[in-house]
Write a structure and sequence with these properties.
Elements lengths: L1 H32 L4 E2 L1 H17 L4 H13 L4 H30 L3 E2 H33 L3 H27 L19 H8 L15
Antiparallel strand pairs: 1-2
Helix pairs in contact: 1-5, 1-6, 2-4, 2-5, 3-6, 4-5
């Protein structure tokens, strides 16, 4: 069915974009962190902020907003797979919690080793990359089996409305800031004692993920 194919191709494009963001952030952070043996509180908070942005942004994907609800409605027996996907989200969230806890510990007494933060970032990225792969390999295949007829057209309409709202939001931002330069990747991690706000301001447009309250708790 052409409508189903259109939807799944659109989702694959979205998946690829998120995968690139995860891999780029992982590589960038490693390059920055390898230059130092220990990190300041500001650096740990900066890294934790980026992990949180990526995690929260996952809930605004079309897969989460439109495909998963349609699958739940069409196939209640799919709870096993959906629970596995949510479990990977919890693994990623736990990595964020580790970073935040280490930041809290740093307030009390010591600086943090870079390799510890790298391990948390790796665990975060690995969990979300595994989820993306599982969605493409299993969730999309399940969707083709259980979603039929008019349900695909309803999802396609939701996609079109979603894209229209996103385009309108971009147009509104362009009217306020007509000359916004595109940023490559986040700016370098702030040096020890530097300001998180200063670094975050320079990185704000690198991985544009909406910031919303976390919807899951590990």
């Amino acid at each position: 069915m052409l409508t189903a194919t259109y939807i799944l191709v659109s989702l694959s494009v979205e998946q690829a974009s998120i995968r690139m963001s995860l891999l780029a952030l992982q590589k960038y952070m490693h390059v920055q962190l390898r230059q130092q043996s220990r990190l300041s509180l500001a650096q740990v908070q900066y890294a934790g902020d980026w992990l949180s942005r990526l995690y929260q942004g996952g809930y605004w994907r079309k897969v989460e907003m439109y495909l998963v609800p349609a699958i739940r409605q069409a196939a209640p027996h799919a709870d096993g797979l959906l629970n596995e996907l949510n479990g990977l989200n919890h693994v990623a969230l736990e990595s964020i919690n580790v970073v935040q806890q280490r930041a809290g510990a740093a307030i009390d007494h010591s600086e943090l080793q870079a390799e510890q933060l790298c391990a948390a970032i790796d665990a975060f990225c690995a969990a979300l990359l595994q989820r993306l792969e599982k969605e493409e390999r299993e969730l999309f295949a399940l969707a083709r089996k259980v979603i039929v007829g008019e349900a695909w057209f309803a999802i396609a309409y939701q996609f079109l409305a979603h894209d229209a709202r996103a385009q309108e939001a971009r147009r509104g931002k362009a009217q306020v800031l007509p000359f916004v330069l595109s940023a490559p990747l986040p700016v370098a991690l702030p040096a020890a004692g530097g300001s998180v706000e200063t670094a975050a301001d320079g990185a704000a447009s690198a991985l544009p993920v909406p910031v919303q309250p976390l919807r899951a708790q590990a």
